[in-house]
What does this fold into?
Amino acid sequence: MKQTPNEAGESMSAQTRPAPQSVSAKSGHEAGEVADRGLQTMFEFDPSTGSLKWSDEDAAARIFGVARDQIAATASSLSACIEGVEDEARIAAFSGGRPSYACEYQLKRTDGDSHWVEERGGWIGAGAGRRLISVIRSIESRKRRDEQLSWLAVNDELTGHLNRSHLRKALSDRIAELIENKNTGAYLMVGIDDLGAVNADFGFEAADRVIAEVASRLAAELGPQDRIGRVAGTKFGIIIADSDADHMRQICVRLLNVVRESVIETKGGVIAASVCLGAVSLPDQADSSNAAMTRAEAALDAAKRVGKSSWSAFTDKTDVVSMRRRNTHMSDVILTALNERRVRLAFQPIVSDLDEAPKKYECLIRMRGDDGQNIPAPEFIPAAERLGLVHLLDRRVLEMALNTLAIRPNIHLNVNISMETLKDFVWAEGYIALLRANQELTKRITVELTETQIIDSIDATIEFVSEIKRLGCSFGIDDFGAGYTSFRNLKAMDIDILKIDGSFVTGVSASRENQLFVRTLLDLARNFGMQTVAEWVDNEADAMLLKGLGVDFLQGFLIGKPETNPDWLPDGAPNDAPQRTDRH
It folds into this structure.
């Protein structure tokens, strides 16, 4: 079933530190050799002349990154190569005030890089023959390894963001600050939609690329005091430092859009990713990190039940126990509404040009409660899918659409079907049987299925599409661009219409990225001989651009809002089929 868009209800984010690189990557081939071979050399310091004598000048030259004739020849020239403040024990030893010393420091190399060494020395001899003998040894590999381990203890290796334990600590600190200062913030849980499908179709390397890119896009939208971390394989936690309810809504919508605004390029192909979000207000809805994470996870689950690229704010009704109660209640509400004929259709016009009188409409489901008030689609559609009642709603929508076509011979209707109906052999066959019984009307029906549902059961989809097209129906993919449908599957399904996902249409006139994506989809549709519909068209600038790009049909609030009692059907969609005189 489908809803209209209006129904779906020190900063690591700004400066994410990359994982430390290996020595060879950071310092070049020569530095890699120094680190890998564990080079060391010894020098003798003569205090009477201040000169140095090296035991292995070749090794010294490689450690210092210079030619052999350029290595430090005096104590002062060696000290000048030390980066930062020179160790006090070393200074004291060279002046004769200490018998021995040991220190670590970074050498400033002539190639611009620095290099970690360990230096140990001590005095031998007496009188004029007294000398300081020291050994310099490369410890670059150990330092890099220690740095890497230290970094990984705090950060996620793939994304570079905080790991779960350190995000939890940052969340606890932030909640304590909010309570102390009597401010409000938010904690968001973000989950990537259907990454398992990416793994299956493109491979794990592509999935990792999607995770890393989604993390980067999310981080780029956050403020300097916000924090982001990876809390599970496909999930991220985000701490919003300062946020009220309105700002929380804005940031959630912005994060949804930034992930979906452009495709992600991988070695396996381009992927259109999306996420769902769960949000909890701090500290009024959660005064501890454990409560915040648990409740944000519950809100994320609620968002996923609405559908891909959705978000949900935590409420007292989000917990599991109340969800069971709501399921029981909603089951009664849906069944009663069906029995009492309180399920209705709202018709939204689809046109090929702005000055065209609509003759094509999409049927959107509506349901009235027993109090006469409309029940929001996000409340009953996900519940119907969970409770196994969506088959009944799909059937009812098709019945009313056929009844409408029978009394209005000059219109064409698009109806949506859920994957749950399509995958169930008995209900799918019943759906097809109803079309077969009204085959004189089927040429004016387009059956739509969202792209993200198709990938869950491609074989069943292909078989179903083949059957309804044999009866004369057209078939369309809704929300195209939100999933991962392959070219092979597009061809196999014999699609008539692609409906471009609304997130790429809204504001397209001002977004170069969305324009590029729409052009790509249009080229794809033309190559497969498909017509295109742009959804969510809400302003004339977007409409004109879309028509200029070659979109066949426009749909959205600019064209017309969904109406249950439009002028051409003042009494709404008929519950009962008209009397038929064409059968014997």
